[in-house]
Amino acid sequence: MTTKINYRQTCILVFLSQIALKFLALPSLMYMESGNESIFIALVMMITDGLYAFLLLGLARKSGEKNLYEFMCACLGKVITKIILVVLLLKYALVVANISKGLEFFVVDNLYTEFKWHYYVLPLIAVVGFMIYKGINNLGRVGEIVCWLIIVGIVYIALKSFSSADAESFLPLFESGVKPLFDCSFKYMSWFGSSTFILMLFGKIDFSRRKPWQMIRYILIAIALVQLVYFVFYGIFQVTSPTHSFCLSDISQFSSVHSSIDELSWLIVSLWIVAQAVQIAIYSYCIVEALKFIFNIKGEILPTLIVMLYIALLSLIGENTLGLERFFFSIYASVLSIVAQYIIPIIIWIAYLIRSKINKAKTPQQQKQTNLKQTKKVAQKRRAG
Amino acid sequence: MKINTQKTCEEIKSKLHNCSDIKTRSLKVFNKEVTLVYIADITDNQLLNDTVIYPLTNINKKAKGKIIDFIKEEILSSVEVTEITSVEDACQDILQGKTLLLLEGADKILGCDMEKIVVRAVEQPPTSLVIRGPREGFNESIKYNLALIRQRAKSDDLVITDLELGNITKTKVSVVYFDSLADKGVVKEILKRLKKIKIDGVMDSHYLISYLSNRPHSLFKQVGDTEKPDILVAKMLEGRVGILVDGSPIALTLPFILIEDLQNSDDYYGQPVHVSFVRILRLIGVIMAVLLPGAYIALSKFHYKILPLEFLVTIMNSSAGIPFSPFVEIIFCVLLFEILYEANLRMPQYLGIATSIVGALILGETAVNAGLVSPPAVMIVALSGITFYIVPSMAGQFSILRLVGCLIGACLGIYGMLLFCVYLVAYLSDFDSYKSPHLAPAAPFIKDDQKDFIVRKPISDMRKRPKSIPNNKKNDDRRVDNDNEN
What we know:
By secondary structure, chain A is mostly helical.
């Protein structure tokens, strides 16, 4: 099994991370801040994430065979690299916490009458642990299988209830101005910024069959799905939207077409569990990589165990989630997300550009020597590893 | 080596523990003693008489040069005559069905191939019954099996590499492939693994599977098998390598991908649209076989609100008075089914019919009437049991997975079942053997190979060899002749 993923698998992972967190509590939470116009926040933020995905993929291409740590060390030096990696680690940990909490509430409220999450989380930890231990190639392949099931499921749920959505309830637009939109997007910043995981794929993407339109297609599908579901959700529930915490299952349940939730919808809603598990695995993999870089850990076992323990700990604080929830909505989480999602990629780009300018300014002989030194260093490190 | 017929004959016999089936026949040729040594039970007497004894007793020519060479070149009319220079080699050859010719004073022994092959006729294999297409199957003779392959592939590109495996049985194993199509790395790896095998005997091709698999302890199949020469040649045309074992009617194929078991040789002889429909049915059948009992347990234990009200009422009514939980009911039925299946499989045919009637009708009916199990539980297990055999080669794996699914459904409900599915996908995604991803062409997605995945396109559309299987890409264009493009 190769250690790299192909471009198509990368696109699918971007797609899965784009839709992660979008179909549970987020639409009802955003409605509280900015009403129906939240649909535009989702649109703008997802387009931004899509653009960042291209930016990061461009960087990943430039990195060649180097991983993020080697690439950043060459551009920014060791100290700044480690600081950036710590920020990224916190961001990934935040996303994993967010998704696993979302999954917990979703499963507890929708599928079981009596449920002890800290017992039920064990198989999730085992599956996620297995996937991250097996590496990014395994994640890419699993993503390829589940991706189409998820798309079909979401489209089915949204289209089935489409006729119940009242389009007129969206009008008039921007009645209270655009300020609530900015406030809302700042507050829920940590729910977006899905492209940051690409940073951990540096040196692991096979660009030999790169088709940029493929990436555009997957990003557009993700945006279209989110827009469709949000339109149906806000169109059906309107002012009662904040009381519906589980977008997908609630759409299906309260559609006027079907007075009660039908069997197929349940099956499809349940499929969301599969999507959540894969999404947790993607970001858990990022945590593993970040831990390896920061603490110079060799091998996969220790960081994988740390991540598994982290998810287990998250389940233990399931009984009293208030503290965690407060953190998700706090200014700290938003600032951390802005830095990790939008500022760090720009810093790396600028550093890379400066570095290449300096390299260009050197004479060809100097360049050769520097390249030789760098290659030797990388080779030595890999041998030692 | 100087031959003393009596002494050498005794030596050979003694090396073979003076077995009673070792026979000798002495003749006088050119006034010298000639002794024929052979194993009676594996020697074709008629052939021996016609090609060795008769020519030796009716010589009308004068000997030229060395007598032993003269006999080899001018007298014997056997198809294959080999020269043997040691008693050890002579013992090996006699065991392979050769008759040894010992000439007094000669410096070598002659070995004439007289092997009597006891085989059953070429029949339709019971595991691969087809409605359309060739009906012939392999039998236990590797010679016949290789002949069947040769008949289908009259190509100078066909390579047959022979090996001898088994310290005691010395079983002949042939590795067959098309030189210009098979990946050289894969062939090399297979030969390397086969040569490394140290085992007393190879009774069947399945003995080799654990040596050829990357994960011999895994539940999942990693080596393909077939009993039909048309399938084997078709697979070889895609770049795969076949392995035939003497004494086994089943040929192994490598590399193997999961989808191969969902495909049938019938698929390529039928209408593409119908075949695609049947493949979708098979896929649904596989999912039902593994997940249905577990899903039933999960739904009736944890998620009864998902069930339609009318169905829920039916289940409640039929389960009223049943002393066991849905899990115990299902496990009871599953185990009963497995026991009946095993009993049916091994019983004489006339008894087997009686057992299936007793099992299916009387036991099932009585268990329901006695209030031990509910009718839905029986129905679910029966449905799952039938769907098992939609892909018979995977039935063994399914029965284990079904039990695991039941256990997970009972402990964790639908949530657990879905995680079980994710785990299975992740586990199978990690299976790469001989450069082939096990879930290809789904994961990794290979666009060109979708023509023969779930939906099957007409054969004229399959212009390139599958990329899921490592093969010589340079010869891609030869798959479908360019003249047929219109």
